Amino acid sequence: MTSIRSIKGTQDILPDQSYRWQALEAAIHSSMEHYNYKEIRTPAFERTELFSRGVGEETDIVSKEMYSWTDQSGENLTLKPELTASVARSFIQHNLGGQSPINKLYYIDALFRRERPQKGRYRQFHQFGIEAFGSEHPEIDAEVIALAMSVFNNIGLGGLTLKLNSIGSSQCRSDYRNTLCDFLKPHFNNLSETSQKRFENNPLRILDTKAPHEIEILKNVPNISDCWTAEDKIHFEEVCSLLDTMEISYELTPHLVRGLDYYTRTTFEITSTSLGAQDALCGGGRYDRLVETLGGKPTAGIGFAAGMERILLALGENNISKITPQVYIIGLGDAARTTVIKLTEDLRKNNIRTDFDVLRRSVKAQMRDANKGGAQIAIIIGDHELEQEKAGVKNLYSGEQDQIAINKLVNHINSLHL
Ligand code: AMP
Description:
Blueprint: H1 15-34, E1 38-39, E2 45-47, H2 48-56, H3 60-65, E3 68-70, E4 76-79, H4 84-93, H5 96-99, E5 103-112, E6 124-133, H6 138-155, E7 160-166, H7 170-184, H8 193-201, H9 212-217, H10 230-245, E8 251-252, E9 264-272, E10 280-286, H11 290-293, E11 301-307, H12 308-315, E12 327-331, H13 336-349, E13 354-356, H14 363-372, E14 377-381, H15 383-388, E15 390-395, E16 401-405, H16 409-415
Parallel strand pairs: 1-5, 7-8, 12-13, 12-14
Antiparallel strand pairs: 2-4, 3-4, 5-6, 6-11, 7-9, 9-10, 10-11, 14-15, 15-16
């Protein structure tokens, strides 16, 4: 019978990789604790309408990439393709804004998008991210950016570029849309079909193009900053000055925009020099009009989402240490078996990572297993050791060997502070 294989664009995270995920997750939780962000978990699927309203009908995500279906009762449902809409839905539904004027939330979650799979681009992938609701002030923009950088620093990721821009208020964006269209009109026939469509319904997204001939056309495009209101300018300058104070360097990127109407002011992206074409690790920005769009009370908000597969790719193989047993107990013969399992259990209760052989293999094979698994100490117990009431304790890193009374082993191992 043929075996069943996983679906294209999905990945199994096997034990030789899962420790790297755990290290990344630990770094995320630790940064979030330090910045006082609280975890929120939302369901894997939602009503399709949430994403068409909250992400936008004309985005690639909603128009082409969602895994949607109609269930037996006729409800239109979708596996979540991004998290901001779900978190905002939950924020509104549970009236979190009524309970506290500021809500600093974070998530680690799986997402589903039917994209063309390639390195760094999958159909089920993972993001961590934050959504901070309640403040329109530049302090929270600066904190959110610092928090993203803190996670990357925590996990030991260098070679990062923080790209920063402001897309201003709604007024600014509608002024800019006109400026942009005036600029692009003479080039309309040279634009790709996609960009021509965007020209009609969302011209700002043309700035996201990757097509070289369009990048050339856009070389002299006016900047959105030309359309900032006085308040937009003050807000952005304050964000920059706070980042300077925190010694976080950034690159001003005048063409970094977001197409959706609820986005406002600060936008940022973090890219890595160690990735190829898919170099974006994290995208974020302010969305002061999102909660309102989803039927909540007008509430300022800002957030980011970072791709975990990409972060691990950027980190390379060697930057995270494996979690290995500290002690491996080697037993030989029937009589040793009870002593070995009792000692293993006692060491584990003392928070020592301990393993033993469950295949009744030879001493040589057990020693090989201890070395292969990366254990630091091997304890050897056979008939002779039982008779003497002493076990052989070997430091597998230094090769040093000792004889220790079996009833003193737990104390002895504890005293080594492995
Ligand atoms: P987005 O939600 O599209 O703004 O993406 C935020 C981050 O998620 C990106 O910067 C990537 O790191 C990551 N990402 C987006 N799409 C994918 C995908 N299909 N596969 C893996 N990572 C992705």
